[in-house]
Amino acid sequence: MKPVNQRHISGQQGAVSLVVGLVLLTSITLIALLTSKTVAVESQISANHYRMLQALAAANYAMDYGVSYFDNGGFDQNGDDIIDTIMVPDLISTYAGQVTHASVEFTHAAGSRCVPLAAVPDWRYGMLVATGFSDDGLAKRQLTQCVSALNILVNGGAKQALVASGNVRLTGQARIINRYSRNNIWSGGVVALIPSGLATYNNSLAADDAAEVDQEKLNPDSTYKTQLVSNHNLGVGLDIVAEDNGLSTLSGLEFFKYFFALQTQAELRQLAASNGQLYSNMTDLTSGPPKSGLIWLDGPQVLQDVRIGSDTVPAIVFVNGDVTITGESIIKGMIYVAGRLAVEGTPKVFGSCLVAGSDAMGRRLLNLPTVSGAGALTLVYAPVFASKRLPLPGLTAVVAGSWRDW
Known about the structure:
The chain has helices at about 5-70, 215, 245-250, 250-260, 265-275, 280-285, and strands at about 90, 100, 100-105, 125-135, 140-150, 160-165, 170, 175-180, 185, 200-205, 225-230, 240, 280, 295-300, 300-305, 305-310, 315-320, 325, 330-335, 340-345, 350-355, 370-375, 380, 395-400. By secondary structure, the chain is of the alpha/beta class. A hairpin with a 6-residue loop joins strand 4 (about 125-135) and strand 5 (about 140-150). It is elongated. It starts with 5 loop residues before the first helix and ends in an 8-residue tail after the last strand.
């Protein structure tokens, strides 16, 4: 038997160990490389995901900012017929002070997603486009949503300057002027025309007057491009509809629903409360700049030397009870009186007056006139809520189902 060479076997074992070691080292190296590559990819994915979350958060922030801006009076708040340029403030994170940027745009062009192709552009509805970016600007996210003004008035409001459920007896030198239509007064009772009392005026018949701009049509001078229609001498003209039984028999709620697209007065009150414009104290109403938009006022009240509404943002003033307008009060918009209206002093209303003549239970108040007073009221009709202008502050909403994030 041939003896085994131990040295030879030992050399073979060393070679095998070396090969195995090299294989293991190579495997470990490959595993390390693959692991580091996986970690790098996962880090990139995590970073990209974080960027997208940043961009999405910024876009949501911009959308909220745009909806709030729209709700504050639309996207032409300076009245120049050009869509406002909105500068969305940067969003600064409390963590590490990261700064993300965003922008918001509004379009009411016909054919856009929120506006039918054949529609006439209207400032009261359109589409918001909100764009958000990550802090390094590498990620971008865009959201769109339709917004619209709430239609709380039936057909944009009254088509007459003065609507009263009962008798109208204004013994002072009241003047009602309407350069938009031939309808001045609609009453469920008698409209008294006495010497030195109420007189009504319509736009003059000259052809060039038909194209007057709104500012001219709102001129409180009854002699400016008008013709006298009804007074003590002329009698009740075609601009006055009196003793309408269909109007005189309405309850307070029925009268309300004739002009408001809501089921109850409580809904209107809640809207005003949600906008921070529910008042019972005249000091709160008259403090600060003139109030606009929807205003609820618990009556009875005396509106003396008040300033409510503006040319660009009129008001809807709902007085839940009797009210006296006196002094040099100026109201631009619509005033709705649930009870009776008394006029003293020299107040001016640019818009319309609706007087339900009802008590707190919505029952008709009989016998006494619904509208009365010896004041020199100037009521200039304006269809402010039917015109294609701005939505009233606090009376807008996003359109359900219109959100898009793709």
